[in-house]
Structures are given as structure tokens and as C-alpha cells.
């Protein structure tokens, strides 16, 4: 195991204090030791408007889970980001017939939102259910997701801008994982900036080593993955 990523993670933990994601730290160590492919998204896009949601539904996927901040909204905002993000979210809702939800590490999380008021506010603003859960991403159980969507977790898509939380969560449970670029990095806490730097470093290293994303039962090959991106990059 390389010392440098561990040193950077230790710095993040010290600066993060009580806000540090303990589950994320534990899973991070598992990635370094053996589960490197957990870190790798199946597909990368500029924003959710670039995703061909209809093609995903036709391939057998039944629903989608979105991270919130910097995936479908600007950080701490309550409305979908305008333009391609908002349009992509609408098309996703149509393709999956409303089988869409938000999974946040704050809203709906028992530790920070025990009465669900923050989750309810997001639901009113976005018109999308917010999953109630007891564990922070990348931790979590497939049962709670399967019960909400009434399908196997392998039939779900996980979309988020963070490798060590969103992508690892989805890959651990067996979902198809899609990573858009963050909507904006302005005003991010220093711990988030450091975490992104660590994620990028590990991602580059694993790609150089030839590590591939996890195989998925609904995906035949890489060309099929590319069919899930809209020609022209969406609007």
C-alpha cells in the first residue's frame, strides 16, 4: 500500500473532525488493499443531461439513485441546476416512470436528519423521493434500496460526482455507476477539495495499471456502455 494516499487521508480525517465519514475511511482502506475496482465508474459524463436514459431503461434498468449536491443541484441549493442537468433529470424520470430517488449523506440520514425535515424539504423542491437511511455512503445495505424500488439492486443506476462515496457505494452493491463532473467546486470545504485530489490520484493510478470497472450482468461490453451516452453530448 502506498504511503502517500494514506497520509493524505489522515490529513483529511484530522481536518474533518466530527464530520469525517468513518465508513468512508474504512472502505478506503479496503480499496487500497484489494477492492480497487470499487473506485471506478462504469461511465463518465459531463452532466446528467448527457446520459441516454431511454437506452438504459431498454437495457433492463428499472430506476436511478442520484447524489444531490454537485450532481443534480449546486451545493446546498434546493433546485435542479438549469440547462442540461435539469433536462436530463426530467428525461430520467420519464424513462424510469418516476422510479428515481435521491440518496444524500445529510438529508434523510438518521444521524443528521432524524425527523426527516430536510429530506421532506428536498422532496417538495425537486419532486423526487429522498431515501431515508442509517448509514453514510459508501456504506449501506442493498435491502433498503431493493425494498424502495421493488427490484434487484443490479437493475439500478447510481449517479454521483464523488468516487469514494457515490461510485464506491454503487459498485459495492452491484449497481451500474455513472459519474458526472461536479456542477461547481466553488466554495467547497478544504476537506472536500483534498478528498477530490485523493480520488483523482487513485483513479489515475488504477487506470494506468489497467484495472477495469467491475463487470455488470446487464452490460455486454464497452460499446454497450458508450450507447448510454447521447450523441452530441446532450443539451
Describe the structure.
With 235 residues, the protein is α/β, with parallel strands linked by helices. The chain has a single domain (39-228), classed as 3-Layer(aba) Sandwich (Rossmann fold). It contains 9 helices and 5 strands. It has helices at 3-16, 22-33, 53-58, 84-95, 117-126, 142-149, 163-173, 190-208, 222-226, and strands spanning 43-45, 63-66, 100-102, 156-159, 176-180. Strands 1-5-4-2-3 form a 5-stranded parallel β-sheet, with helices on one face. α1 (3-16) runs antiparallel to α8.
Key phrases:
single chain; 235 residues; alpha/beta; Rossmann fold; five-stranded parallel beta sheet; 8% strand; Phosphatidylglycerophosphatase; phosphatidylglycerophosphatase activity; HAD-like_sf
